[in-house]
Specification:
By secondary structure, this protein is α/β, with parallel strands linked by helices. 34% of the residues lie in helices and 22% in strands. The strands form nine sheets. The protein has an eight-stranded mixed sheet, with helices on both faces. A seven-stranded mixed sheet has the order 5-4-17-16-18-19-20, with helices on both faces. Strands 23-24-26-27 form a four-stranded antiparallel sheet. The two termini are 36 Å apart. 53% of the residues are buried.
Length: 653
């Protein structure tokens, strides 16, 4: 083996060799440990299906199922003949309880600074009025309602109004262009859209209603648009448009929850981008509810004393799982925040968490890198003594950011890194809150109900320490049921590559302690002169260097080697770009070898992110290869970051 080839494995082995960090005694939860032991025992005795039956008993059913499961991957029915309602389990179940009805369900803060809250009792009343309003506009069970909204209380109300009457809701990311929205409205055959006159983002009004009007002109199925007055715009009303406040004011606060078949479609989530065939992932009534309940139980471990902040955007599935369904299914108190978490002050994140006494936070790893970039002084100015948990998901977590966060944001603070996908409807592998030891950057072990394998390209399991294709081995209720209007595409995308398995299309490796490391998309692996290198391996080294605040590595085309890696870096305040670049180059060549030598390093003031905090690597790749960005940017949080990227690329030419 060549020197470069053997060196290539070193950074991966260094990741896998991260020590297990047992939880400090004060961070342990005896209640969670007992519940996990019970769930594990059920699963050990009866398999994953038995666990899901155990979990389902914790929900309220209108009619109990006659058979737990029928079918296998690609054609599965769970809780056959069972009936329940998501809104009933998330709202009414607690509003009906005299001891819980006046408990706060949601605390909301707007970007301009307004604060309001809703109890479970008040939430039920608003949801019932909204549900009656939808029915008055002709919406019935099975109809599709599109929500083009930011993180507002009205968003929560509208979603559960749909759940209450059996309408299928689809959340359209509020950063989508009119063209991207029109494609999804057409594909979903949506009958009604709920939106706002305008939203606030970084101090500016974003005219969402104007986008909706342009999109609806291309979507003839839409009959009505319900408009929330968020920004006080003087609206010239058009045919079919209805004011949200007026609609609810005329409705009764009584509206029974409709019993729905467990396998009925509840939620339609379109993938981002403007491809000609948007991929609509369909989740079922019971499946999504149960997956969200289970997800929040093991990842967050909500208690009656918690204030839980899912610091993401409603357009990223993480938010519906945790802040719309899962958190409320536990009767929790949730914090919703509307705007950018670094506006108008870079310390807005700390200010929001401090103001509301937040105890648990879920965000993308990028949020932690942002906090690290603005400096330790900000963290020291805003201590968060009530904070008991940080959890991240959505992209790989580098060990250096893990160490910074756990050392700076709280003493012995657990940082749980979780992994899941839109299609799985939940994260399914991570350390269990309050119980499991943690490794910096790993995704822990699978939680109850899930079984995985790592396979080579021939479909054979690989040993520990060897990278391969990550697959799920057993069906779960939370897994998507189909792609809207295209079941064949569903089967081809997820089940044909490895028959009898669900193919995640992610590359992963398991270490000697049984911890799973998800390295990134299989199609994002950089092939340099026939050597496969994951972007996570290179980024973990780059992020560990002094002065680096954030790092992203992409592969770009090269006429000799096929693909070469380039890095985009944002630096901490006061860092010298020449010194940092030299240190990053040297560390990567020392850690991986010459095969991973960076072709270019671009220094940017910030990297392009979605509102969910995910780095938009396809835009970085396009900029590095063409010197321009012409691809779809509708999911981008801050357009000014593209200017910084282009200036960095063109300045190095």
């Amino acid at each position: 083996m060549s020197k470069d080839s053997s060196a290539m494995e070193d950074p991966l082995h260094a990741l896998l060799a991260e020590p297990l960090r047992p939880l400090a005694e004060a961070r342990r939860s005896p209640r969670q440990a007992r519940l996990l032991a019970e769930a594990r025992a059920v699963e050990a005795a009866g398999g994953p299906d038995a666990y899901w039956a155990w979990a389902a008993e914790r929900l309220r059913w209108t009619r109990r199922w006659s058979r737990l499961r029928e079918g296998e991957f690609g054609d599965t029915r769970w809780f056959v003949n069972g009936q329940l309602n998501v809104c009933d389990n998330c709202v009414d179940r607690f509003a009906d309880d005299p001891l819980h009805a006046d408990r706060t369900a949601i605390i909301w803060e707007g970007e301009p600074g307004e604060v309001m809250s809703l109890s479970y009792r008040k939430l039920r009343e608003a949801v019932a009025r909204c549900a009656n309003g939808l029915k008055s506009l002709g919406i019935e069970a099975g109809d599709v309602v599109a929500l083009y909204l930011p993180n507002l209380p009205e968003t929560l109300v509208a979603i559960h109004a749909c759940n209450r009457i059996g309408a299928i809701h689809t959340i359209l990311f509020s950063g989508f262009s009119a063209e991207a929205m029109a494609l999804r409205l057409q594909s979903a055959r949506a009958k009604l859209v709920v939106t706002v006159d305008a939203s606030w983002r970084r101090g500016k009004k974003v005219a969402l209603l104007e986008n909706v009007r342009r999109a609806c002109a291309e979507a003839p199925s839409v009959r009505n648009v319900v408009v929330v007055d968020r920004a006080g715009t003087d609206i010239e009303w058009r045919a079919g448009e209805v004011a949200y406040a007026q609609l609810l004011a005329t409705q009764s606060p009584e509206c029974p929850c409709v019993p729905l078949d467990a396998n009925s479609p509840a939620f339609l989530m379109f993938t981002s981008g403007t491809e000609s065939r948007p991929k609509g992932i369909v989740h079922s009534v019971a499946g999504f509810l149960l997956g969200a309940w289970s997800n929040v139980q093991w990842q967050i471990g909500l208690t009656p004393d918690d204030i839980y902040w899912c610091a993401t955007d409603v357009g990223w599935l993480t938010f519906p799982i945790h802040a719309v369904v899962g958190g409320l299914a536990h009767g929790g108190t949730l914090l919703w925040y509307e705007g950018a978490i670094d506006f108008p002050s870079l310390e807005r994140f700390y200010e929001v968490a401090e103001r509301h006494g937040v105890t648990k936070i879920l965000a993308a790893p990028t949020v932690l890198r942002m906090l690290r970039a603005i400096g330790d002084e900000s963290a020291h100015r805003h201590p968060l003594p009530r904070l008991e948990l940080l959890s991240v998901q959505g992209e790989p977590l580098d060990a250096e950011t893990f160490r910074w966060a756990t050392q700076t944001l709280g003493r012995d603070l657990p940082l749980i890194n979780a992994y899941g996908q839109t299609e799985t409807g939940a994260t399914w592998t991570h350390p269990v809150f309050g119980v499991d030891a943690i490794k910096a950057g790993s995704c822990g072990r699978p939680v109850p109900g899930y079984v995985y394998e790592i396979l080579d390209d021939a479909g054979q399991p690989v040993p520990d320490g060897v990278k391969g294709n990550l697959v799920l081995c057993t069906p779960s209720p939370s897994l998507a049921r189909t792609i809207w209007d295209d079941h064949e595409r569903f089967l081809q995308t997820y089940f044909r590559r490895f028959p009898g398995r669900y193919y995640t299309a992610d590359e992963a490796v398991r270490d000697a302690d049984g911890h799973l490391w998800v390295l990134g998309r299989a199609d994002d692996v950089i092939n340099v002169a026939a050597h496969r290198i994951s972007t996570m391996e290179i980024e973990s080294i780059a992020s560990a260097q002094d002065g680096v605040a954030d790092a992203a590595v992409v592969g770009v085309k090269d006429t000799v080697k096929g693909t070469v890696p380039v890095a985009f870096l944002s630096l901490r305040a006061g860092a010298d770009s020449s010194q940092v670049s030299a240190a990053v180059r040297a560390a990567i060549e020392r850690g991986i070898g010459g095969i991973a030598r960076l072709d270019k390093i671009y220094i940017c003031s910030a990297l392009p992110k979605t509102r969910a905090g995910k780095t938009m690597r396809r835009l970085l790749r396009e900029a590095a290869e063409t010197g321009a960005i012409r691809g779809d940017t509708t999911g981008l949080d801050d357009l000014s970051t593209l200017v910084a990227v282009i200036e960095a690329v063109q300045g190095s030419a």
